[in-house]
Design goal:
- The protein is of the alpha+beta class and about 625 residues long.
- It has 3 domains: about 200 residues, no CATH class; about 140 residues, Alpha/alpha barrel (Glycosyltransferase); about 260 residues, Beta-galactosidase, Chain A, domain 5 (Distorted Sandwich).
- Strand 17 and strand 18 form a beta hairpin.
- Helix 10 runs antiparallel to helix 11.
- The longest helix is centred in the middle third of the chain and has 20 residues.
- It is globular and about 80 Å long.
- The protein starts with a helix and ends in a 5-residue tail after the last strand.
- InterPro entries: Chondroitin_lyas, Hepar_II_III_C, Hepar_II_III_N.
- Keywords: Lyase, Periplasm, Signal.
- One of its GO terms (molecular function) is lyase activity.
- It is found in: Periplasm.
- One of its GO terms (cellular component) is periplasmic space.
Length: about 625
Amino acid sequence: MLRRPEDWSVASHTIYNMKPVQLAGIVERRLRHAVVPRLPIDFDERYDRRVPDDLSISPGPIRANLDRLRESLSETERADYRAAADEAADGRYTFLDHTIDFGDRIDWDREAIDERPIFWRLKLASFEGFEWLALGHGSPSGLDDRRSRLEAQAFDFDASNPIGEAAYLRRSWTPHSVSLRILAWSRYVAWCAGDEGAEVPDRLIRMIYRNALFLANHVEHEIGGNHLIENAAALIAAGVLFRDHDTGWVRAGRKLLKRAGNRQFLADGGHFERSPMYHATVLRRYATATDLLSAVGRPTTAVGTVAEHAMGFLSSLVEPSGEIPLLNDSVHGEAIRAATCLAYCRACSLTPAIRSRHHPAGSGYRTLSTGDGTLLFDVGDVGPPHLPAHSHNDQLGVLLWVDGRQVLADTGVYDYGANARRQYARSVAAHNTAQYDGIEPIPTAGSYMLGKRTNVAVEADEHDRIAASHARDSFAGPSYEHRRSVATRGEESGAAPKSASDSAPGAETAPGWRIIDRVTGDPDATYTVRYHFHPSVDVHGAPVAPHDAAPDADPDPESELRSGTEGFAIRADGDRIASLRFPGTERVRLTESPYFPEYGQERLRPMIAVTKPTGEEVRTLLTVDSDAG
């Protein structure tokens, strides 16, 4: 990870920004890995002794919450869960778009597992198949075969993965995976307990209790972020399930959620990692916690208020399709769908509370709408300095929807491995913004590290125009400043073209946006403005160059240059929905770029790039076609 000397500075900045609890947690984990496996102690047996012999459960609140979640799903989603549960029961697991067929028994030492990123193993150890089965079916009746096979997998896991094995906190006993399997197993047990004909396996109940004991001793304070919220929700679920026992888990989980609500959510209700995918994930956990706390008579105001503000933020960000925009580390198909998440929150008696997205301490996502189009302009800083894991170099990026269809899209994320795709997904070149002289505004390294930060300054924030800048000031490397202004234009926006060079037939009346970029730095340097389109649209007006296998490679420029004044037509399903021009620019490159809509999936989509000397403007005119919609 740190073989290149240029990565050492990134690592030092990452460590410098970390909080003492994070550094202490890393040291503690390394010590545990070095010492615990060598001790002549059976930690499994120690945890077993702490499980009460007269263990009893109270499944009612969790069963009622499960029903609310299931009823919030569409029939298509329930069918998808049924199919995924069937695959899991058959021993076939697909994560990161890679399938391993284990057959009758999961071999936890199988080499194919370790050939995938560590995230694959952590997903496998989460046992989400139990939750998939309970979400796909309203009753366990008639599912004895699938249930017995899933239960056999869990029991084999329990016997094959002892607490204290080598690297246990980064393998089967990663607290994040522990949290997810507590939630999955608890819902499954409550689902079975609600049916007179379904026997609840005592061994699985004891396993939930033992996992909760372990989690209570290994809360991920050193990681924080969404992991801490998953830990808290799991502790509350286990505490509610075993509420006849004096565990203290409900109290501990509620305390964690209150603290996270104060520290992890921004003034506009957005989660501070600025990933819509993780925002939906943590909102779902807050809704679950609120519902369960209410069911057992515990106070819900602090937790519920955070959930309602987070609902308001998500409802203002969700796409017309009900999905999330792929800002920062986000993909489709991992977290609960945004529309489903909001329906589930409402089923838990939560109401969205909209907070201003123009607050300077908010996420920085602004929207400018005109005609049938909406443009999102990111004028916020990247994620929290002490938690850079899911942040991208997307400063001053834009996204665009026309008539409910996405036109300009972010890149998503392929996986979390320390590889070329990971570096590309986080790079400035993967986003709809400007890049100075081929460098990164914030250097990246490994899977999650970020170097010295830049800051975004909002200079104008009006209903029809937003302007902002960010600067890179470096002693050892290049320094520069990028300024971007976005304004609506045309009859419906009330804004007239800025100059005669903007004019084209119909430009005075057609709704759209004017984007003006200027980068200043070394007078001999250049900068490039890129626009990445969604794969569902076509961009016409110049031949598309062959795609190079390397994500950051430049194709042959001679095959793809054209005049920016002639414009590009953007079409969807054969219909023209928008156009794009670059007045005053003679050479524009149309090529392709990678798009990662789901973990492990790569598609190609059109990309336009304009390169100019520093100090000169790149003017972009986006117009909604008159017959769009």
